[in-house]
Amino acid sequence: MGPGTPEEQYQIHPLDMKIFLSLCLFVALLGLACSARLRREEKKKFTTQYDNVDLDVILKNPRLLNGYLDCLVRDGNCTPDGKELKESLADALANDCDKCSEKQKAGSDKVIKHLIAHQPEDWKDVEKKYDSEEEKYTTRYDGVNLDEILSNERLLKGYVDCLLADKDDSCTPDGKELKAIIPDAMTNKCAKCNDKQKEGAKKVINYLRENKPEDWKKMQTKFDPQELYSKDLESELKKI
C-alpha cells in the first residue's frame, strides 16, 4: 500500500492533538506557578525604595534623628520612609532582618550601634516597643567548644579580629552571629541568652580580662564606649 496523499501524510491524529494540547496546558501552568512563586519571593523582602536615604546625615542631625524616633516610638508624624520603617521594624527585629537587603542590614547595624552608644535611652524605648520579650538568641552555635578556642592563640585571635573589625569579611558564621548580638546583649544584660550562653559569656569575659586585657579594653571601647553596660553585664553574669 502506498504512502497516501500529502493530506493523509500530514493529518494529525486526534489522540496526538490531545497530548499536544495537554503539554501546552502543562507548560502554561508551570509558567504561571513559577511566576507566582517569584512574586511571593519578592514580597518576602522589604522594599528598597528608600535604600538611598543618607543615614549619616540623619545620625549627625539631632533634629532629624529625633523626628524619626518620634515617629517610631512616640507616635509622632512620619515621613514616607519613616512610615515604611515603622511598619517593618517589628518584623526585622523578630527575624534577624532576614527580609532586608544587604544595604538595609548594614544600615540597621549602623543605626543600632549609634543609638546604643549615644542615645541608649532611646534605644531602650525602641526595644521595648518592637522587640519581643520572649525572643531568645539562636542556639545554633551553642556546641562551639570555647575551651578549644581560648586555648588556641590563632583561633582566639581570629574571633577577636572579627569582633573588632568594621566589616564581617574575616568572620566565621558563629563569629558573625556573636558580633551581631553583642550590642543588644550588652544593653539587656544578656537577658535573651540561655544558661549555656551566659556561662560561655562569663568564661570568655573572665579569660579576656585576665589574659588579654588590651583586647578586652578594645572591645569595651567598640561596644560600650560610654561604659554604660559592661559593669551591669558582668554583675549579672557573676550570679551564675
Brief characterization of the structure:
With about 240 residues, the chain is mainly alpha-helical.
Structure notes:
This protein has 240 residues and is mostly helical. It folds into three domains: 16-43; 55-130, Antennal chemosensory protein a6; 146-238, Orthogonal Bundle (Antennal chemosensory protein a6). It is 68% helix and 0% strand. The chain has 13 helices and no strands. The protein has helices spanning 6-9, 14-43, 55-59, 62-73, 80-94, 102-118, 120-130, 146-150, 153-164, 173-187, 195-211, 213-223, 230-238. The termini are far apart.
CATH homologous superfamily heading of the largest domain:
Insect odorant-binding protein A10/Ejaculatory bulb-specific protein 3
Work out the helix count.
13
Written as H for each helix and E for each strand, in order along the chain, the element string is HHHHHHHHHHHHH
Class by SSE composition: mainly alpha
Distance between the termini: 97 Å
Radius of gyration, rounded? 28 Å
Question: Proportion of β residues?
Answer: under 5%
C-alpha geometry: globular
CATH topology of the largest domain, which one?
A: Antennal chemosensory protein a6
The description of the largest β-sheet is: none
